[in-house]
Amino acid sequence: QVQVVESGGGLVQPGGSLRLSCAASGSILNIYVMAWYRQASGKQRELVAGISSGGSTNYADSVEGRFTISRDNAKNTVYLQMDSLKSEDTAVYYCKTNIRNLLGIGAYWGQGTQVTVSS
Fold this sequence. Notes:
Blueprint: E1 2-7, E2 10-12, E3 18-26, E4 30-39, E5 46-51, E6 57-59, E7 67-72, E8 77-82, E9 91-101, E10 104-109, E11 113-117
Parallel strand pairs: 2-11
Antiparallel strand pairs: 1-3, 3-8, 4-5, 4-9, 5-6, 7-8, 9-10, 9-11
């Protein structure tokens, strides 16, 4: 069994920063791509940023230059550093990991963490 747990969300003023963390634990043989998605109220879930096991990254155009994704493979953890936050970044942020365990390869999601950008 695999558990994926996000943390670090909260309320921040426009222009501020937050750092999200996502840790995977349990029966894990390998972790491949780790990614952050977000879903604003009334909108579809969208990809924010992803990082491969080798460290290659990709970002949504809306966050390029403001957000930084990184990972610590020894800790099975992915981070999202969010700077220069805007009101439109308000959403529930979800972590998704592609994990190989004894059952095979599957996608595992966290429960989400709320990020609210407001003055």
